[in-house]
Design goal:
Shape: elongated
Distance between the termini: 83 Å
Number of helices: 8
Radius of gyration: 28 Å
Number of strands: 5
Length: 207
């Protein structure tokens, strides 16, 4: 029987090492099995790892904004009852009602359809629906626009938002044919002001 020293095993090619392990397992040679697995782990650890690509400035901005919007959403969820159960209970009789999840599955702001289809560079938002009424808070950046040109948009039924305008006025050239009710929208340059308007709309929709 061959005397398999650590040095001899280390000299084997990857394929020969795998073959030796298979044979050792077939013959139940525990010592050689352990030596082979130890060498495989050593080689695996020595392999260079693919470095993850650093985020672009735009992606970094989107990620940061998604986190900030989510943090506001969590604060609002502590202030108001935004549970799906309550939304459903208060929407009885509304045909085709589907409650909105405030955040995405990872706990960040949701990815808006306009970013998903490439219409704009950034469209991230949080939202709550009760009945046919929807209120949203999001960040909006047009395609090819500088990051500093971003805006924060709050939308809600016209009676729930002061100073709101139609979507076509605030988002010229962007189709909102799928809107389920005549919502109005306001644009802000700073997040705290937008969050305050979102808070006020939530107070009305949950009243």
């Amino acid at each position: 029987m061959v005397d398999w020293s650590d040095d001899r095993i280390a000299a084997l090619s990857d394929q020969d090492l795998k073959n030796l392990l298979v044979n050792a397992e077939r013959k139940s040679v525990a010592e050689v099995i352990a030596q082979c697995k130890a060498e495989m782990e050593k080689r695996d650890a020595a392999k260079p790892r693919k470095a993850s690509k650093p985020r672009t400035e735009l992606k970094e901005f989107e990620h940061d904004m998604s986190g900030q919007l989510a943090a506001i959403g969590k604060q609002m969820a502590e202030k108001y009852d935004l549970s799906e159960e309550t939304a459903k209970a208060n929407s009885a009789g509304v045909k085709g009602f589907r409650s909105h999840k405030l955040l995405d599955a990872k706990g960040y702001a949701k990815l808006g359809g306009h970013q998903r289809d490439g219409t704009v560079a950034v469209d991230r938002y949080i939202s709550y629906r009760r009945g046919n009424s929807i209120v949203t808070l999001g960040v909006w950046l047009l395609k090819d626009a500088p990051i500093e040109a971003h805006e924060f948009h709050v939308s809600a039924p016209a009676e729930m938002i002061e100073g709101g305008r139609t979507f076509s006025e605030v988002r010229p050239g962007i189709s909102d044919k799928d809107l389920q009710e005549p919502r109005h929208i306001r644009a802000f340059k700073d997040l705290p002001s937008a969050a305050s308007a979102f808070d006020a709309a939530l107070a009305k929709i949950t009243a």
